[in-house]
Amino acid sequence: MTQKKTWTLTDVDRDAYVSSCNLGPADVDRDLVPFSIRKRTLRGGVRDGVDVVEIDNGALKLAVVPTRGMGIHRASCGDVQLGWQSPVHGPVHPRYVPQDEASGIGWLSGFDEFLVRCGLEYCGAPEWNDAGKLIHPLHGRIANLPAHYVEVSVDPATRELEVVGIVDEARMFSNKLRLKSTLRATLGSPSFTVTDEITNLSSAPGELELLYHINQGAPLAVPGSRFAAAVQTLVPKDAAAARDIPTWSKYPPAAHAPEMVHFFELLAGDDGWTKTMLAAPGDKQGLAVSFDRRQFPLFTLWKNPLPAADGYVTGLEPCINLPHVKSFEKSQGRVAVLQPGETRRFDIRIEALTTPDAVAKSQAEIDALQKRATPTIHQEPQRGWSPM
Amino acid sequence: MTQKKTWTLTDVDRDAYVSSCNLGPADVDRDLVPFSIRKRTLRGGVRDGVDVVEIDNGALKLAVVPTRGMGIHRASCGDVQLGWQSPVHGPVHPRYVPQDEASGIGWLSGFDEFLVRCGLEYCGAPEWNDAGKLIHPLHGRIANLPAHYVEVSVDPATRELEVVGIVDEARMFSNKLRLKSTLRATLGSPSFTVTDEITNLSSAPGELELLYHINQGAPLAVPGSRFAAAVQTLVPKDAAAARDIPTWSKYPPAAHAPEMVHFFELLAGDDGWTKTMLAAPGDKQGLAVSFDRRQFPLFTLWKNPLPAADGYVTGLEPCINLPHVKSFEKSQGRVAVLQPGETRRFDIRIEALTTPDAVAKSQAEIDALQKRATPTIHQEPQRGWSPM
Amino acid sequence: MTQKKTWTLTDVDRDAYVSSCNLGPADVDRDLVPFSIRKRTLRGGVRDGVDVVEIDNGALKLAVVPTRGMGIHRASCGDVQLGWQSPVHGPVHPRYVPQDEASGIGWLSGFDEFLVRCGLEYCGAPEWNDAGKLIHPLHGRIANLPAHYVEVSVDPATRELEVVGIVDEARMFSNKLRLKSTLRATLGSPSFTVTDEITNLSSAPGELELLYHINQGAPLAVPGSRFAAAVQTLVPKDAAAARDIPTWSKYPPAAHAPEMVHFFELLAGDDGWTKTMLAAPGDKQGLAVSFDRRQFPLFTLWKNPLPAADGYVTGLEPCINLPHVKSFEKSQGRVAVLQPGETRRFDIRIEALTTPDAVAKSQAEIDALQKRATPTIHQEPQRGWSPM
Description:
mainly beta; Beta-galactosidase, Chain A, domain 5
């Protein structure tokens, strides 16, 4: 059996950088099913200079973006498109993202990915201090930092493709956190996993906030689509979300109305994992996002049913804190503290559900988890869950 | 007759990008007079990574800058140099323009072009809200956004060269305006036109401010040069401009004195167009800027006669609003609102006047327009034209 | 004898740019000892797109960074490593340095060089005006501006390698200062010189603050290392520094304690020069920084003995002003004013001390200078030296 083969694409410490590559079975083991791993640099517009690693495992196509903190720009599986149509033509090079715009929301200029990490020192709403100084722009820095190490590998034994990237969010007199992200996709599978290890490189404790903003638009998120999860607790974020409680799992017609955000504690199985699902109308296709509930105590559902031109999109968001200002999250004990050298691991599995059967199977898994407890669904925002 | 030929240089939606090209008659029709269209990427200094499309129509040379919102860096026609010597060595890559500098005027770090658009969501003076937050940095974002689509074409029938670029100023929860700019130059002509179509991509109304900052220094703008236009109304912006009213059309000796800004309504012909002109001393050469007065209700003349080392420069500026803070312009009804899907078109013609005859001919056209009405020249700033 | 040979690597005014080169004796004179001058562009991570000029004079290796204002990233001489291990993996492209971050200290995201200039319009602590607007981010702009002109040369007669770079910190309505930096290294020598000429390009007076942040970590700066200089006056910056006065020349064990900053007037020889030294434990190796005391009236010693993971580092900093907020420096008359066209020159010599003998020799030179006066060592911060 051929050994696992690894290609280092970027390693700044060793001055290594591969401008482009295109790997397939011939590079590993000709008996493998057709697959490809392709590295290139995008040119033109706001994507100029963005490195992407594009994977095709024979079923699933994925574009991972080292230049944007190992985010995932788009994915597809057959005719199931993962991701959304943002008003921006990304993936956007960080140089075009005015994170320090006084509005606090300059981050949105880069917002068009299927999976974007929010963190690491903070995430959530922008926060100003009492003197009016912007201390935490929206959603943090990690999505606009480039990986200084990238490697890809193929293991003929496990039939797994891997993309590994390392990104540091670190500077003198500040937090020094390292993200090591490993994306794994088995040949021929409609699912993939993201395994992130976040390490505090400092000799002092470091703070961590973290939310995975997994964004989906048409054709999976359209009026008549539905969301499913095994709910332990559901709390609406604010008045707009409270009005949506009777229809919290449904996607409404497009309108210029406020976004609706619901917070959850979810029910997990004996293995500690839970599953959430977005299903297209008629349950014909869908997207499942599973994760380890012990790593992610919380989950946020973002429903933003704007007209298509403005971005009809929903976010399925495993998180360790809620996307409020950091000072509030800290007051609620939801800001993690990593000790010197400490590593925390986060695992997410994402699956394209290409058939009604696949949707039904995911729904059955969620139903089974839901049997473990009766959900508590709050009609109003709750103290501790939102600033009051 | 050979058909119009078109080359797509950038199309991010189709993953197309041409690094460099150099087109001439042999690529279209060998019977055409010599011309060239050249695409390349500049390297070094603050221009590193800037794409330019350089056109030579046999009379006029032009450098269009897709990386800077389709601005025009420099132009020349024989020994007439269009543009100016800025303290910066541009064209400046947007990454070196600190638009979000707290001063509000970071835009100036990229200011060295012959033609730069100010807009689209706002233009004019920087504005802070009551809480001291910078809400509108100087002159807006469009000049520092790259085109995601660029094409060039040559039509042997009309003998026109064209450069088309599309730039989006758009993000989630914000304005979503698209600029489609078409520059046309007929083979052998000393003039060219800029036709901009601005479309609201959103399903909600979008706001538009717009000013074309057409900047000229030596040898056309020097002490003793003059400006000419068919004036309906002239209003000085402020006290410094009021002091200049007796000499509003003359360019003074260089001095470290405040800039002088005059606002105009101009007289148009039956075709709706008006013409303005800058003439070098002795009317030997000049620059004419014509535009459709129905599209541009206003015009701003910026006289900034600093010593050459600091930028002796004047701006001829067709505009739909005045370059005040946006809140004032809004209070005066000068901020345009584009309905969903609505497109507004703006046409400007720029002509290098290479001989005394050409200057005299332009002056005659302006004189003819001026006969339509006696100018109203205000000695002082006027309510509604400047904040009081 | 072969003439001095010069290669222009960047000259934006002439549209010249050399992507890479690798020069050696064969390009100049085969009789010269082996040396190399190499130009390349780094790829990947936050260094992506950074130009470096790497010199090896047969004894000393140096990486000069045109993209970062002609800073020096790292150097080495045998086993003496000059520079330090920063939490960032630089050299960092300016696009990844959020200088306008509201914190005022975004500059630190690019802080990992051996020699970085702080200036030119201002340097030192960030300053906000009374309205809370950030007017001077930490340490100024020059380190994050690219050179628009770069040349290298070799003179067989003097056996000198040179790297010349020109960087403008200029924009309309602002300061217009030009830095021309010349680095010279004689073949086979463990030392090099930096000669900077700063010219006011404007026709109006221009303000200059300037500090050379020369940063050293392990193995030269570790617990037990020492600093030496011929002291005329020593003033601790603040309470933390005052507590360090009894041990001001010693490097303590690593700890999470405040940085210690000492200000000096130094004693110079008849030639106007003074010398400072950092010596590794046991005086086995070291680093000497000499400069013209008439050009640099002041010197700052920065001791920042954080644990290695957070950056154990010291700064030897010849300066014309102290690194306080600019308004304070101005009130003390330490902000230089350059008249139109005026040039100021600054000379620094840096030497790797590779043997105990070399350390002893430098110490002897410092001892000789110290004999010229008894040092005045203040126990407390002094009025005029720090804001009170």
